[in-house]
């Protein structure tokens, strides 16, 4: 069973809870918070989540905030993280196939919960194609 990390800020809290409920029978999910609708600073939750993917405690990660941008930008500060902002399933698929993305960021204020689930399911079930894409992925990290 794949181990998945998940986190959200207050804007993504309800989506996080919905996704956890929908995915709990297929994946082992580690929830890094937030745990309420109270306003929070998303980096406080993103950094531990990204670290857990970076160090191998979790295979993939899901991040949710209002636009998806803040959590994606923060996660991508980690050298071994490739976090893709996805607002449609095809972007999630291509981010895995071509970029070997290991985290996905969702914009809770712009997509329905059902679409968020569809995006996450594509992200979690699509494999990296390797080949010519591997050379490009190898050039992403600065170190």
Q: Can I get a quick summary?
A:
The chain is α/β, with parallel strands linked by helices. The protein is built from 6 helices and 5 strands.
Q: How does this structure look, described?
A:
With 143 residues, the chain is α/β, with parallel strands linked by helices. The chain has a single domain, classed as Ribose 5-phosphate Isomerase B, Chain: A, CATH 3.40.1400. 43% of the residues lie in helices and 17% in strands. It has helices at residues 13-23, 43-54, 69-75, 89-99, 113-125, 132-138, and strands at 3-8, 28-31, 60-65, 83-85, 103-107. It has a five-stranded parallel beta sheet, sandwiched between helices. Helix 4 links the parallel strand 4 and strand 5 (103-107).
**Any idea what the CATH architecture is?**
3-Layer(aba) Sandwich
Which CATH top level class fits? Alpha Beta
Q: How would you sum up the global shape?
A: globular
Q: Kindly give the count of domains.
A: 1
- Beta strands, count: 5
List the helices and strands and how they pair.
Elements: E1 3-8, H1 13-23, E2 28-31, H2 43-54, E3 60-65, H3 69-75, E4 83-85, H4 89-99, E5 103-107, H5 113-125, H6 132-138
Parallel strand pairs: 1-2, 1-3, 3-5, 4-5
């Amino acid at each position: 069973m794949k181990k998945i990390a998940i986190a959200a800020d207050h804007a993504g809290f309800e989506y996080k809870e919905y996704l956890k409920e929908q995915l709990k029978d297929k994946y082992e999910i580690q929830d890094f918070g937030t745990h309420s609708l109270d306003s929070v600073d998303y980096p406080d939750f993103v950094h531990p989540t990204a670290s857990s993917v970076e160090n191998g405690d979790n295979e993939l990660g899901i991040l949710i905030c209002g636009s998806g941008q803040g959590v994606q930008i923060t996660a991508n500060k980690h050298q071994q993280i490739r976090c893709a902002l996805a607002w449609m399933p095809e972007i999630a698929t291509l981010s895995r196939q071509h970029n070997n993305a290991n985290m996905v960021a969702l914009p809770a204020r712009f997509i329905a919960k059902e679409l968020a689930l569809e995006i996450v399911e594509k992200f979690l079930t699509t494999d990296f194609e390797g080949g010519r894409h591997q050379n490009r992925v190898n050039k992403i990290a600065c170190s």
